[in-house]
Amino acid sequence: MRRHHRPTTTLALVAALALAGCAAPLVTGESAVSSAPEVTSALFTATEVHTIDVTVDEDTLTGMIQTYLDTGEKEWVSGTVTIDGQTFEDVGLKLKGNSSLRGISTDTPAQELPLRIRLDKFVDDQTLEGYSDVTVRSNTTETSLNEAVSLDVLSAAGLASTEAVATRFSVNGSEEELRLTVQNLDDAWVTDAFPEAGEDSVLYKSEAEGDWSWRGEDGDYSTAFDIEAGEDDYGPLIELLDLLHNGTEEEIAQRLPELVDLESFATYLAVQEIIQNTDDIDGPGNNSYLFWDSSTEQFTVVAWDHNLSFGAMNAGGGPGGSGAGGGMPTFEDGQVPEGLEPPAVEEGEMPEGVQPPGVEGDELPGGGGGMMSRSHPLVETFLADEEWAAAYEAELTRLRTALVEGGVLEQAVSTWTTTLEDGAGDLLTADQIEDDADAVLAVAG
């Protein structure tokens, strides 16, 4: 796949992938008020722990949280952000997430909040090394190793991924908290990941509360899919959904390979299975992006949100943390994967589309062994075809050999572990780092 290579860590992983002797991957605010020059810095050097310090008026911060609690709206506010010693004024800040925000209140420590940071929200062209839009993620493990390693594995498999770095995060002079900071998928990301794409290309994001249902040719699809980059055009998406829901077997066999990059989709499903991500495209959070390239008129499924990978589940201990104790946490009362609204069910029955662990038959890959998966038309259509299903199985075997047996995944764990030991040893204990690293390796097999 044509993409911008992630620095340092991923380059080493790609080299290891080649040395493993595997085949090549299948995937051959609203008004600005001022302007500022670009500042250059190695923001996404993954072998270093970075610092992000936010300064924002306390009343403004409280008001932002209260607005969300009252209305569900995530409003932008302005603050000052210092990244690795470089200070940016009038930066856009807002809450980020869905289930990760369910436990927040105006008393939640600000350094535990999941926040989106946009340097250019109120200041034109204010960027750091060309990047302007990042999210300080909510942790589901003490170290976020599971998500960081997942992103490296995606890149090593040849899939479009996102930049990520370990971060010492603080707000208004608070104690620092270790968080994973990732690049948001936007126009800049599209330019990096798909540099040869047509100028009318579109990046769609599946909404957590949405679905892939057919709403008709003139239906409103904006409630199920946001347009994150490119043209405001739902036409290509409607064409795909029409085929999935209304096409005959013959039409699907002919048209789906034209509309969707099925080779990269097989790789996507295989990687999600290897990293045991319980919240992927057919998971409860409906987590995925769809990139439509106007030059090829073809979709690519893009992975997003891997904080539930490698057996991790949302845990308590505040929106930003995973609570006490090391290793992969489990559910606590009231905590569910991002975007999941549990349906009403009769006693003794399973919710529609949900597969319990260990169920055979209709169990679907690509969602951590089917755990909490739900019906998804693209996944079901793809796996219903014998040839495409065989391609998935072959890709799963190839990637297990290359990534797991070939040592690529283990190298990613080792690299991130060293980074955390060197740069965040005062924020984490050695046991916490070791426990999370061991948990990732144990799940991967």
Task: Give a verbal description of the structure.
This is Cellulosomal protein. With 445 residues, the chain is an alpha+beta fold. It has helices at residues 9-19, 58-71, 145-156, 187-193, 235-246, 249-259, 262-274, 377-384, 386-405, 408-423, 430-444, and strands spanning 34-35, 50-55, 77-83, 86-95, 115-118, 123-124, 133-136, 164-171, 177-183, 202-206, 225-230, 289-293, 298-302. The chain has two domains: 38-191, no CATH class; 195-340 and 362-405, no CATH class. The protein has eleven helices and 13 strands. The strands form three sheets. A seven-stranded mixed barrel has the order 2-3-4-5-7-9-8. It has a four-stranded antiparallel beta sheet with strand order 11-10-12-13. Helix 1 (9-19) runs antiparallel to helix 10 (408-423) and helix 3 crosses helix 10 (408-423). The relative contact order is 0.16.
Fold topology:
Elements: H1 9-19, E1 34-35, E2 50-55, H2 58-71, E3 77-83, E4 86-95, E5 115-118, E6 123-124, E7 133-136, H3 145-156, E8 164-171, E9 177-183, H4 187-193, E10 202-206, E11 225-230, H5 235-246, H6 249-259, H7 262-274, E12 289-293, E13 298-302, H8 377-384, H9 386-405, H10 408-423, H11 430-444
Parallel strand pairs: 1-6, 2-8
Antiparallel strand pairs: 2-3, 3-4, 4-5, 5-7, 7-9, 8-9, 10-11, 10-12, 12-13
Helix pairs in contact: 1-3, 1-10, 3-10, 7-9, 10-11
Q: What's this, in brief?
A:
This protein has 445 residues and is an alpha+beta fold. 31% of the residues lie in helices and 16% in strands. The chain folds into 2 domains: 154 residues, no CATH class; 190 residues, no CATH class.
